[in-house]
Amino acid sequence: MLVLTRPLAPLCATPRFARLRSPAYSTSSILLASPRRSNYFNSGFTSSYDPTQDTGRGPIFSKSKFGVPQFYPRDLKKRVDDYVVGQDRAKKTICSVIFNHYQGLRRRQHHELQDQHLREKIQRQKFAQDREIFERTGYSAPVHPVEGGRRHSDRSAYAPKSWRQQTNIRHVAEDEFPGHHESVRGTHNEVLEDPFEAPSDNFYIQEDLTVPNHVKIDKSNLLLIGPTGVGKTYILETLSKKLNVPFTISDCNSFTQAGYIGQDVESCIERLLIEANYDVKAAEHGIIVLDEFDKIARKETVNGRDVGGEGVQQALLKLVEGTKVTITVKDNRSSRTQNQPPTGYGSTTPPQAPPSGKVDQYTIDTTNILFVFCGAFVGLDKTVLRRVSKPSIGFGSEIRGGRSFSSTNSLKDILPLESYRHLPHQPIFEPNFTPLDLTTPADLQAFGFIPELIGRLHNICALSPLSLEELYRILTEPRNSLVAQYTALFETYPSKLFFTRSALYAIAERAAKNETGARGLKMEMERVLAEPMYDAPTPYVLITEACVKGEEKAGYWGKDGKMEVERRIREEDERMVNGGVEVRLSAEEAREAAGLGSA
């Protein structure tokens, strides 16, 4: 056995401070030196650098390089406000959930990159130590981990040749095929297995203490509840245009349980992969919106099985929680039939069968995909009222004033404002709460959803019905407002379209009675502008309040009728103010809404 010994330094060795002042020691070596003393205090001082020890350069050098976010939830909300009117509480919640989701992904990627650099650093330090040991013992230096080679544990590879000849141990590919070992060097590592070792001893994975244990932030899925036409999907579509992530909207009406006619729930993952241009890494960080979520509630069926309700909910469990889904995509571009010439032209040979399409498989991990569920949940507000409201029978009960639960507007004022104090993002002026804001998992379970799926929906946000003022603002304020859309459409005829303030207010009133939200505004605009579209082109078209109510036809003027149009608009606006109708719109906004521009 070869034993390495090191002579002790004499007592008259060079003092410590004299050695540091020696020109052979540079400033960098002094800073990186980690002094180590022997247990024998009579021995001389020795100093060396250990790459495995922390040099302790201070808190500035150990500061995290994570950096500040590029945007915050309030920045997302400002962009959404340019296109969506109202729903401030819902917009704040949606922007916060999306921001926190991608902050967690950004933090996780940063930690993975740091851990990778740390492992590479430890591997380089270990290689440096092993090389120094082999150089001292006289054996050949080991191969760098990047270049490959046999493992250091096989001492027969580094033992002297005489010892190998005595023990008669040879490499598996040595001497049988000369030069074969050099050709396969780096492709595999030789692992010696002990035949007497039980295979169950390899089941336990040792904990890697060199890599720090980071806190894992789980994702939080979102459920949006609200009547039709309040902007549930429109807010998400607007946000998708501002975020550089794959985004897709799937309809739950077509989902069925696996094995039945219809689409499987994995089809939403396939649509997300298509939106990501078949980039698996990008698809694993996307957003999936499942619209019409209330349509997959449990249904009572007399014959058969509920394959479109509870079966779909059970299939969504692992998909929402996080699992690996294999998507099979068939490329049909090569299997398309070519256009054949008509009969009597060209050759009469029958066409050959097209080649079969290429089939590709993609494995996608849904752990980091954000799921957003949307639905109207018609009748859920009555379930909440039955749970929250006090009974009207018995001693000490409150007698209700005969209010019916027929419409959403009558449900707003049933519960006192104290019932909504625990909700986040309380409005300062004019609170607009509904019983849907008090929805709990118990209410969703009574509606027909299994508790396993409800527990995976961590944020429940309700959208309020649009008021008359918000409907009026939707006509003029957003960038893509209805007035701007139809004005641009009439300019292609070419014609110039104008509205009076009272006409826009009348359109908002009729849309509010339909109880279809912002979609009712589009229906009323199509009804009012049906005749002017047919009678086009006319240079000037004016829509008044009487035209909206059906009392008169739309006004048409020639090329010289601009002054008359302005006079009619001014008269109707004055009549509207004198009549006591109050609309919160400035004079400049009124001129812009009418299409006249600035004075």
UniProtKB/TrEMBL annotation:
One annotated GO molecular function? ATP binding
Question: Is-annotated flag, keyword Nucleotide-binding?
Answer: yes
InterPro entries in alphabetical order = AAA+_ATPase (IPR003593), ATP-dep_Clp_protease_ClpX (IPR050052), ATPase_AAA_core (IPR003959), Clp_ATPase_C (IPR019489), P-loop_NTPase (IPR027417)
Q: Cite the SMART domains for this sequence.
A: AAA, ClpB_D2-small
- TM spans, by residue? none
The keyword Nucleotide-binding appears for this protein: yes
Compositional bias (Polar residues) spans?
A: 335-350
Signal sequence bounds:
none
Enumerate the spans annotated as Clp ATPase C-terminal domain. 466-556
Q: Which SUPFAM superfamilies match?
A: P-loop containing nucleoside triphosphate hydrolases
Specify where the region named Disordered lies, as residue ranges.
Answer: 141-164, 330-359
Record domain AAA+ ATPase: where: 218-389
Task: Give UniProt keywords alphabetically.
Answer: ATP-binding, Nucleotide-binding
Q: What is this protein called?
A: ATP-binding protein
What is the primary gene name for this protein? MCX1
